[in-house]
Queue: 3 jobs
Job 1
Amino acid sequence: MPQLYKTKNGLMFHAGLIALVPVGLPARGKTFMSQKLARYLRWMGVRTEVFNVGAHRRAKMGANIPHEFFDRKNKEAFEKRLGMAEEILDTMIKYLTEGFGQVGIYDSTLTIMGSRREYLVERFSAAGIETIFIESIVNDPSIIEANVRAVKLRMPDYVGWDPDKAVADFMRRIEHYTEDYDELNDPDQAYIRIFNLGLADAKIFSNKIKGFLPTRIVYYLMNLHIRPRNIYFVKNAEVEPDSKLKDDPPLSTYGTAFARSLAAYLHNLRRINAGSSDATPSGSISDGNDFKAALIQHDARAIGAPMKYLKVYCSTRKRSIDTSQFLDRRSCHIVPSRELTELKPGITEGLTKEQLKKQMPEDYERYEKDPYHYRFQRAESYHDLALRLEPFIMDIERERSDVLIVTHESVLRCLYVYYFNLEEDEIPRVAIPDHTLIQITPQPYGAKEQRYKIPVPMFGTPPASSSSSASVSLTSSVSQSPAKAIEALPKLG
């Protein structure tokens, strides 16, 4: 992930070592929260790992463990669980104290026990690690069962089980834990308490939370939600040829036609996603077949009836705004954002890769060695761009509606890396193909994507060299297969 605040030793300024300890009964969103927090902290440049005791238990004992194993009265099983929790605790402390990381997330259900939490504070304090407990409380039975069916039934423990029997078994497992549950109430401990994590009526209380990093964690959790939605990426449409970045050129004739097609295609796709019975394209929506009746509309408002709200973010550049111009204003709101402005190319503007090699060989060599951090004269590095995008990331996390992001290839690369938890050196190699709509669907423990090639019937096959970017060197498009997210691209491409 991009290292936004990295120091020489890889740690964040003045933050120290931190142990985040989720607390709560099963099916309360602790692992979901842990994975989300880890992804966000890595994006900020904080070396973070999740240490999940359940995964360790499955690795040692296999899956298909009956609920009786989690009964506290089963002393032999409890000793085994405690031993495995201790093994993961030792691993996490080593990870933090030997310079591998700065934040460890200790994901263990045994933390529901007050005595266990006191022990953890002692162990972490002895190692110079600050402890912050994060308790997730959900009391609505319907929400708990929905979480079990949506997430827990996909666990290796229930592979091949009848769904209803699996739910009943997991509910018995929760009952075993309930007997030992001590809610957080120690005023001397640093903690965050969340009621109804991710829901519209969520409430958050904190105690003894101070410092930059802990307060950012609280802020992130305040914006976290679990409402299903899709996030769409699309690169700017083609501009007039031989345009320079500073000119802020208009779309070409083909680019304008693509913008019309995008509006119709996205409208139809979202109706299909919503389960509309009358949204049936003539052929597979992902294979490039055109929707003749919809695509030939000259007025985007006539494409269809109002539908689910869509929040559209685009850069303040003319080509981003124009790519969004035909979207149905009855069901979307367009917000231009300066944060989405493309990577500034500086002295490389207009230069091909070969020209750059010839005219600035030393600069090019440095860029090849570190394409994420290296900055050409008067240009931005990808590190600079990621830093600029951090506030926008928070805006997207809090947004509960579907989101469309229309912007430049370099910006979409950084955002893509955030959602799929990729390493920083992969940013320059992320493929954002031309004329392609990328649909990202957040999942409980990650995200999935689907890519759709947008047809432009009036023009047939898209131009081979079309690109929405005026810079050939740092932000130019490379033709890619929509099926692949990462390609072995030339690093400057």
Note: The longest helix spans residues 75-97.
Job 2
Amino acid sequence: TQSTWDIMATGASAIVFLDHKGKVIIKRDYRGDVGQNVSERFQKKVLDVEEQFLTPVFSDSGLTFVWVKHNNIYIVAVAKGNPNVLMILYFLQKLVTVLAEYFDGLEDESIRDNFVTTYELLDEMMDHGYPQITEEKVLQEYIKTESHKLAKMDKVSEAKASEAATNAVGWRPPGIHYGKNEIFLDVIEKLNLLASSNGTVLSCEIIGAVKMNSMLSGMPELKLGLNDKVLFELTNRTTKGKLVEMEDVVFHPCVRLAKFEQDRTISFIPPDGKFDLMTYRLNTVVKPLFWVECTLESYTHSKIEYTLRAKSQYKPRSYANNVEIVIPVPPDANSPYFKANIGTVKYTPDQEAMVWYIKSFAGQKEYTMKARFGFPSVADPNRDKFKKVPIQIKFEIPYFTVSGIQVRYLKIVEKSGYHALPWVRYITPVSYTHLRAHETLRYLVCRLLLEKKK
């Protein structure tokens, strides 16, 4: 049988906030069983170790450390024995979200300036090392700050907060009212794509998330329909449109899992404000949106010359805006010269790169840029390290989808019968493409990693 200690060890014993030097900002010790030298042990295992050897979870002399980094702070959960690591990691991510919401950003100064509020949040969000209330909107009913109307709760607010924390819909407090009822939905995807030097796609995986911003009154019931392949197969329906097969689907707690497992219906009462409804994975082969060839025309002890060709591979009627192509250069390069048939090019020595800016890049177009740099008489010993640095592309494409996932419907039902406006936005706010270099003298393209939002 499982001992009492094994049960107790599934949670966290303490939460510690450290600055970038490893100094303790604040510490909340829930159980008093992990000692006082936590920061020194964490520093030896994380701060004094090269980044490539870091792990988000490690054990040291009977203690398990689980940590995340956000801006210039480390948030560390320490537990004795063998804790539930996934639960703790999820809690730390929620803690970052809550603190960033409360303090309008999260860094070491925001914790120091608001340490009383931080302690109050830690006490409400975790009890004896176990996560409790993690929804920002519910916590804001308990803990008020200046940005959240600093005042003592009246009896009505206290009753609402208590009800939200204890009822079956703990993520949504009752009594919410909006003059205009709206809900926004965004689909954000990250695509990892491996291509050979001749452009053949070797592997392709899409990691996606459905994000929502709910501004609805009361306790609305929502139903979301996607072009889910499994759903159409279960109901023996056919469609002329494209179907997608989602794998590893993870839902927000508000989604009724039993209903989804039964008939693939995504039904839920949403939290108020912004939240992630679901994440998923797709194994769908897609064509790279951009293809970049970087040729070294000359690479001698005194100079280096590039020819860069960038080609868009999406439909002609689509446009990529604010395109930035970041090309690595040797660390000791100097005397830059650029010639491009579109856009502007700048040398950024602090990044050891040159950046090609293109305001608008039409589909099925190809543009060329030439660059030349000189070298000092004494060569930098790390001159060739640029060959292993990836080319990076940043861009945005409005009204464009890649994976083919589509929202078929978003139904909103509330007992008061109000009319609500659902907004589904297909947009690519920020995208990143990395061309992982497998360098030869005249060809620099091997691996392409593409991250997109739609």
Note: Residues 1-8, 147-161, 428-454 have pLDDT under 50 and may be disordered.
Job 3
Amino acid sequence: GRIMGKLQKKGERGSATNYITRTQAVKKLQLTLPDFRKICILKGIYPHEPKKKRKLAKGSSAPKTFYYVKDIQYLAHEPLLQKFAETKVFVKKVKKALGRDELDTVQRVRENKPQYTLDHIVKERYPNFADAIKDLDDALSLIFLFSTMPRQGKVQPGIINKCRILAVEFMHYVIAARCMKKVFISIKGIYVQVEINGNDISWIIPHQFTTPPPSNIDFKVMLSFLELYTTVLGFVNFKLYSNLNLIYPPKALEDVFTEKSSVYYGDDIYRERLESLNIRLAQVERLEDDDEIDEELLAGDETLEGLVQSRKEEENFKNLFNDCKFFLSREVPREILVLIIRSLGGEVSWSSDSGVASKYDENDPDITHHIVDRPSQSHQFLSRCYIQPQWVFDSVNQKKLLPIDDYVAGALLPPHLSPFVNTEGYLPPEQVELLDRNETEDKEEEEEKKEALSAEEKRLAIMAMPKKRKILYNKMIHSNKKKAGAVNKLKRKREELDENREKKKTATA
């Protein structure tokens, strides 16, 4: 008789073998679900949606999470799995000793707590320094967020302190490298953009008041990301400091010959001075290279002349506040203003009563700008101008020192425009004024050319379209109408706002 081959079961061949469910993966790696989540976050493994999900789930419509089999095999060789197993055993031993009231055993077991580092994972995920820089946005946002967390709560104080140290180190680098680009105050916090090695990095600095952590957030997941990001930022800070010949961990220039060596040594006064962002950092002694471009050699070459011009503009922007000497009143947000002013070449100080590291007092005759956030001052110096904090932010975004008339103490401030917004769609009137007129004229010419196409030609073109393209065209028309509706809505809103302002002005007059 005929010998039959082995019957092939459904789901054991083809693309079905590329996927594995989360439950199967957890069983294979012998992990708990929280540990599996953690290892996936650290290693950068994410679930994937198969094309034929129902077929893979063997007809079941129950929600299932699928991973690539190759990814799970890759995780199986991770040395951290052994550490997770050791931690599990450690917790059991501590619980057992506590249950028996054997405090000596508890002490001995805790001294041998399993430790691990994520250095090897950082090297795997970011083989080049450029890769780490590109992935820094989320890391900075999370670290700055946790640095403002309350000390008593769901997050350990040690983690919060570590985040604060890394955040302060990074801000000192921004000041030393003068790489500030854009800033914007929003309800969420202050958006900041800097440029490092040709990459734009944007993150949010929370406002300076502590908010209680919400109860509906899974802190275990966030802390897993934070564990990776703190390690990454530690490496990045070290590399950035070494690129600028700065000593790392940061050290104040005046403390070079003292025994105080870093923020990590727990000296509270030294740490406060470092966190003030108003001290000069010590450098490693090294011969400076002459990087200046010889402009005579470049004469005649338009491309290179353009590069020289753009470089000059960049240098001018980096020294925007060079001739300005600021004094901050106690009511203004100090940290962000010090970061912006010092990173663009300005001098800044405050009252010695409100914080350490003030360079000069309020009576200094050389002060040019006094930043206040109160409508009136009890005593005013005629040699300086009293302005509101928004002037600093708007000057940075416009890359020039703006006239102070609109920003004097007690004045109704102009709208704070976002430099991150896309110029398409609705633009506030103030933004339109600031845009280059040539760009707007070019746009108008293009629109006129588009309108020149007669209605009859348009109708015939639509009729000649294939069905698929016609469907796509209708979708485009629909989305354009939707966008136009949103723009008109914002315009009406602005008109109502201006009307209400005018009514208030006439009522007070």
Note: The two ends are 109 Å apart (CA to CA).
